[in-house]
């Protein structure tokens, strides 16, 4: 595992959750996620049992039922950040929206990383395993601001006009 681990909350389809630490990427091996639990022991969770993994700011949210504090799961308007706006229908019928990078990681098969609609909440990033996705919709492709093309340079004439 990588040396830098982030605070995460792994939510299972059974609504159980496990808090611990994971690297930012490359944590899925042979269909299992190896999580460093808060008590210092490693826990192997089958990816087939996971609904999502939320990278969070703080473990002490005070909410036992919803520690990731993922209250808003859909956008209220068009997002402003660059990337793909996705809507994911999960296997249990829940709908989750977020922004994903417009790169090859979307089709890599390791799962999808999303930035949630409410970036001020406790959840900063969400990883959804491929087995949890029933349907995936691309709602919008949001790119960088269109740059204006520079005007073509004036081609100087080879003749110089005489002044006198």
Give an overview in words:
The chain has 164 residues and is an all-beta fold. It has one domain. Helix content is 0%, strand content 41%. The chain is built from no helices and eleven strands. It has strands at 5-12, 17-23, 28-29, 32-37, 42-46, 50-56, 83-90, 95-100, 112-114, 123-128, 133-142. A hairpin with a 4-residue loop joins strand 1 and strand 2 (17-23). The N and C termini lie far apart (80 Å). The model has no long low-confidence stretch (mean pLDDT 86).
Topology, element by element:
Blueprint lengths: L4 E8 L4 E7 L4 E2 L2 E6 L4 E5 L3 E7 L26 E8 L4 E6 L11 E3 L8 E6 L4 E10 L22
Antiparallel strand pairs: 1-2, 1-6, 2-4, 3-4, 4-5, 6-10, 7-8, 7-11, 9-10
Task: Please describe the structure with a list of short key phrases separated by commas or semicolons.
single chain; 164 residues; mainly beta; eight-stranded antiparallel β-sheet; 11 strands; 41% strand
Large-scale geometry:
elongated
> What is the share of helical residues?
under 10%
Q: How many strands?
A: 11
Mean pLDDT: 86
Class based on secondary structure composition and strand pairing:
mainly beta
Give the amount of beta strand, in percent. Answer: 35-45%
Question: How is the biggest beta sheet arranged?
Answer: 8 strands, antiparallel
Number of helices: 0
H/E order of the elements?
EEEEEEEEEEE
How far apart the termini lie comes to 80 Å
Unreliable sequence segments: none
Total domain modules: 1
Radius of gyration: 23 Å
């Amino acid at each position: 595992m990588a040396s830098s681990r982030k605070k995460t909350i792994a939510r299972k389809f059974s609504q159980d959750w496990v808090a611990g630490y994971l690297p930012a990427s490359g944590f899925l091996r042979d269909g299992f996620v190896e999580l460093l639990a808060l008590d210092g022991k490693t826990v192997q969770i089958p990816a087939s049992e996971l609904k999502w993994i939320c990278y969070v700011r703080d473990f002490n949210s005070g909410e036992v039922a919803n520690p990731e504090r993922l209250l808003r799961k859909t956008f209220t308007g068009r997002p402003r950040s660059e990337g793909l706006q996705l809507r994911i229908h999960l296997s249990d019928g829940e709908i989750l929206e977020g922004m994903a990078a417009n790169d090859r990681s979307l089709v890599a098969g390791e799962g999808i990383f999303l930035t949630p609609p409410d970036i001020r909440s406790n959840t900063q990033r969400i990883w959804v395993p491929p087995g949890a996705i029933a349907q995936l919709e691309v709602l919008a492709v949001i790119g960088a601001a269109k740059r204006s093309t520079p005007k073509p340079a004036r081609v100087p004439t080879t003749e110089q006009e005489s002044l006198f």
